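Render this sequence as a predicted structure.
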Amino acid sequence: MSATIRNRLTALLPTVVFLLALLFGWEIAVRFWQVPVYLLPGPSAVFVRLLADPLFFAREGLVTLGEALGGLAIGGVLALGAGIVMAQWRWLERALLPVAVIAKVTPVVVIAPLFVLWFGFGAWPRLLIAALLAFFPILIGAVAGLRSVPTATREVFLTLDASTAEEALLLRLPSALPQLFAAVKVAATLALLGAVVAEWVGGDRGLGRAILLANSNLDTTTALAGVATIASLGMTLIGVLTVVERHYVFWQAPLDRS
């Protein structure tokens, strides 16, 4: 085993130990107090439910993941474009940022039924709700990152008579990558949440729909199995983004707090 893999496994050890301790305490508590399964099943019951029908949770999870990734892509492209424009012209930031804040603070459970009413019961409402939740953090990360260029570096580009597009693509965008990746990690989890909430309102597939039906039938075990699947998808997304970040932001050394 290489030193790199060994170090990464060692870094994951505290997280694994904490999760196992949490699940063990949960299992002991529900058994000791004999909590009814319809109120709170133990982790073992949830695990057995996942093993009983893994294809169901995988199939519904892929539906939710596809909606989240689609929404993340739409929201990310729009947010990055708006961030580039707002970072270049501050008067546009003053005009557009309040609108973005209003969209962010509006509860998604209020917007979701309207999107279903406007766009029907297809995939578009769920994609747009996921995109709406992903938009704001990427926008803020893009604006902050694009403005974090050192003055001396920008002056070098000016002396080279670089155009606005060249400055944005060759200087501002690479400098903004650390903030952008941090924002995309937050946006990815929000997009996943948006897809689940949208499925509650107007979906016929996905983990959100499965959890809603399970709750209506007092099938808490299935509901928690769906939640566990969503959590696994979220951690996988963060892990993939972290790997990509280490590849493209190789100059930024990670903080070591061991």
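Summary. The chain has ten helices and no strands. The chain has two domains: 15-52, 63-248.
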